[in-house]
C-alpha cells in the first residue's frame, strides 16, 4: 500500500512539474500574451543620471531626476492618451499626448495652443523633421522582438516564487521572475536596435557626412562600454500577463562617463474599456508643427 502511495506521489509531482513548464517557457508565454493586449492602462517611472565627465562646456551633466507617464490606450480604436511629467536638471516639464488615427495632439502649459502633428503631412524642417517619430510598424516590431527575445534563454530566466504586487487594481498575487543579462549580450542588441531605428526613420535624418560620423562615434562608444550591474525583475499574474517590470542598470563608457538608469512599468485594467476625450480643435486654438518652428517664436526648439 505504501509503495503504491509513493509511486502515486512521484507521478503527481512529475506531472505537476511538467505541467508548469520551464521558467523560460512560462515567461515567454507571458511576453507573447502581454504583447497582444488590445486595451488597458499603464504607468511608467524613470530616472536617469549621468556622472563622471569633467570636460563639458557648462560643467553640468544631464539628469532626469524623475519622469512619470500615465498611459491608457485602445489599439482597436487606435487612440491613446499619455500624461507625462519630467524633471530635467531641476526644471519641470509636463504635457499630455493624445494619439489618434489621423493625428497627434500635444497640450502643455508651455504651448500657447494645441500642437497638432498630422501623421501624413509633416514636412522636413532643416536637418530633421520636428515630427520625426519612432516608426514602430508591425514589421519593425517583429524585428525588435527577434533581437531582444533571443536574449531570453533557459539560462537567463529564473522563477523566484510567489509575491504580492501592489497595483492601482489593488494587491495582486503574482510570480516573480529574474532575468539575468550580461554586457556582452546587451551591447549587440542595443547596436542592432539603433541600426533598425535609423533605417526605419532615415528620411527624418540628415544624409550629411557629419551625421554618419556621429553615428560611427556613437557605435564605437557603445562597443567599448561596459553594461552592469543589471537588475531586471518581472511579475506575472494568474492570467499570465506581465503586470510589473523593474529594471536598474549602469552603463560606463571609456571616457569615464557613467549612466545610471532606474525604470519601473506597471500594467493594469487590462482588456477593460477606456474612455479618452480628445481636445476640441478649432482654427483659433491649433498650431501645426511647421508653424510652431517657423512662424512662431520658438526657434530655440530647432537648435
Question: What does this protein structure show overall?
Answer:
A hairpin with a 5-residue loop joins β10 (242-252) and β11 (258-268). This protein has a twelve-stranded mixed beta sheet with strand order 7-8-9-10-11-1-2-3-4-5-6-12. With 303 residues, it is of the alpha+beta class. α3 (138-149) runs antiparallel to α4. The protein is built from six helices and twelve strands. The protein has helices at residues 2-20, 23-35, 138-149, 183-200, 209-223, 289-295, and strands spanning 39-51, 63-74, 79-88, 91-99, 103-107, 114-118, 157-167, 170-179, 226-237, 242-252, 258-268, 286-288. This is GerMN domain-containing protein. Keywords: Signal. Residues 1-23 form the signal peptide.
Structural class: alpha+beta
- The overall pLDDT, averaged over residues, is 79
Low-confidence stretches: 1-19, 121-136, 297-303
Shape: globular
Order of helices and strands: HHEEEEEEHEEHHEEEEH
Any idea how many domains? 1
Largest sheet: 12 strands, mixed
Order the strands across the largest sheet as they lie in space: 7-8-9-10-11-1-2-3-4-5-6-12
Separate helix tally: 6
| Number of DSSP-assigned strands | 12
How far apart are the termini?
83 Å
Amino acid at each position: 500500500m505504501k509503495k503504491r502511495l509513493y509511486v502515486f506521489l512521484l507521478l503527481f509531482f512529475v506531472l505537476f512539474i511538467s505541467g508548469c513548464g520551464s521558467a523560460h517557457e512560462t515567461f515567454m508565454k507571458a511576453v507573447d500574451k502581454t504583447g497582444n493586449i488590445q486595451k488597458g492602462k499603464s504607468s511608467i517611472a524613470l530616472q536617469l543620471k549621468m556622472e563622471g565627465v569633467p570636460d563639458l562646456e557648462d560643467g553640468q551633466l544631464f539628469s532626469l531626476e524623475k519622469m512619470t507617464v500615465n498611459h491608457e490606450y485602445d489599439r482597436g480604436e487606435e487612440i491613446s492618451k499619455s500624461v507625462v511629467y519630467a524633471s530635467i536638471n531641476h526644471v519641470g516639464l509636463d504635457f499630455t499626448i493624445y494619439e489618434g488615427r489621423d493625428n497627434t495632439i500635444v497640450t502643455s502649459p508651455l504651448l500657447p495652443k494645441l500642437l497638432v502633428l498630422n501623421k501624413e503631412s509633416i514636412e522636413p524642417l532643416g536637418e530633421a523633421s520636428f515630427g520625426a517619430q519612432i516608426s514602430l510598424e508591425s514589421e519593425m516590431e517583429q524585428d525588435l522582438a527577434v533581437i531582444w527575445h533571443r536574449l531570453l534563454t533557459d539560462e537567463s530566466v529564473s522563477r523566484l516564487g510567489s509575491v504580492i504586487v501592489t497595483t492601482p487594481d489593488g494587491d495582486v498575487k503574482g510570480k516573480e521572475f529574474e532575468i539575468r543579462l550580461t554586457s556582452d549580450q546587451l551591447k549587440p542588441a542595443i547596436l542592432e536596435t539603433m541600426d533598425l531605428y535609423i533605417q526605419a526613420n532615415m528620411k527624418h535624418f540628415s544624409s550629411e557626412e557629419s551625421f554618419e560620423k556621429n553615428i560611427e562615434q556613437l557605435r564605437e562608444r557603445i562597443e567599448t562600454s561596459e553594461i552592469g550591474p543589471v537588475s531586471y525583475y518581472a511579475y506575472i499574474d494568474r492570467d499570465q500577463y506581465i503586470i510589473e517590470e523593474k529594471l536598474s542598470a549602469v552603463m560606463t563608457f571609456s571616457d569615464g562617463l557613467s549612466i545610471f538608469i532606474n525604470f519601473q512599468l506597471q500594467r493594469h485594467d487590462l482588456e477593460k474599456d477606456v474612455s479618452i476625450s480628445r481636445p476640441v480643435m478649432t482654427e483659433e486654438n491649433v498650431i501645426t508643427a511647421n508653424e510652431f518652428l517657423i512662424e512662431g517664436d520658438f526657434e530655440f526648439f530647432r537648435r
